[in-house]
Known about the structure:
It is a single chain. This protein is mainly alpha-helical. It has one domain. Helices cover 65% and strands 1% of the residues. The protein contains 18 helices and two strands. Residues 143-148 and 403-412 have low confidence and may be disordered.
Amino acid sequence: xxxxxxxxxxxxxxxxxxxxxxxxxxxxxxxxxxxxxxxxxxxxxxxxxxxxxxxxxxxxxxxxxxxxxxxxxxxxxxxxxxxxxxxxxxxxxxxxxxxxxxxxxxxxxxxxxxxxxxxxxxxxxxxxxxxxxxxxxxxxxxxxxxxxxxxxxxxxxxxxxxxxxxxxxxxxxxxxxxxxxxxxxxxxxxxxxxxxxxxxxxxxxxxxxxxxxxxxxxxxxxxxxxxxxxxxxxxxxxxxxxxxxxxxxxxxxxxxxxxxxxxxxxxxxxxxxxxxxxxxxxxxxxxxxxxxxxxxxxxxxxxxxxxxxxxxxxxxxxxxxxxxxxxxxxxxxxxxxxxxxxxxxxxxxxxxxxxxxxxxxxxxxxxxxxxxxxxxxxxxxxxxxxxxxxxxxxxxxxxxxxxxxxxxxxxx
Length: 412
């Protein structure tokens, strides 16, 4: 048990962070080359070895893996071997993690590990800010993009130990939410003032990052955390959290982004939405891929169901939206994954997520994962970090609930 819990810390940190020496275009080389071998070795040395890896309850993820491979082979014209290898790396690591963490996970130790992740992101951000004030802008990670630029003495919108601010705020928000969830599990569903006082340093580190990352996703996640904590029967709690959310939103608001948003609403013609690329190029890379997927969906086309192949969406959208540098990943898993693997592939992926990571389809976790899918592609550590943390959360909840089989499906 203790060996498994110690492995857990290393796995979570590797998934959550990208340290500059191991950063290759946003990919963590520690994860690519080391983690699968490490996890496989740990699983083999485990008391049960690899026994149970192919149990019936894991069948959906093996079906998804087989489908993923077959779709990639059938649509080999768009296939990049490096992308396939990275995808398989994530899937296999997730399978091994599920196998390893089926044993009891120490709840308090798990919370400490999540606190460590928030802490190292906080320290990295502070060091970045100090470095920029002193005239050094190369602390930790610098994005491999011609669009990434740090202004002198500008201490907002930094990326800490991730590749961009929205990714960093997602990771710390999911870790923070999970810490609060563990507290409530310990206290029979309650989060009282004493818990808040104990968690004051964690609250302080999280809110500090929320303010300085200046990401809209951060505000959305914080609102959901407030909804999770609020007592629906107490109006005073709603008012207090509402005021707190408003003040935090004002403090962390990216006024330049709000100005761009106002310009979009003012100038955009809904009858010609493709003009968005000329109004706001960055915003168009998130909105237009979904628009093109929906308007071009053909129920009679076989590829609408099995997809066009891994990485097809990147080349397709790059041809439609000019000015995107070659080799740059953009958009989110929605709609890139349905583009690449069809609605069947997306349905299988959602089945995997709902089985292992969600207690209910309509839940805070489901909303967070949906938002992550809009912001991150399949081959990102952030996406798999979120899925892995929610999987562990579900396992802990299930293991402490009588008559509930571990890792039961969300629909059960």
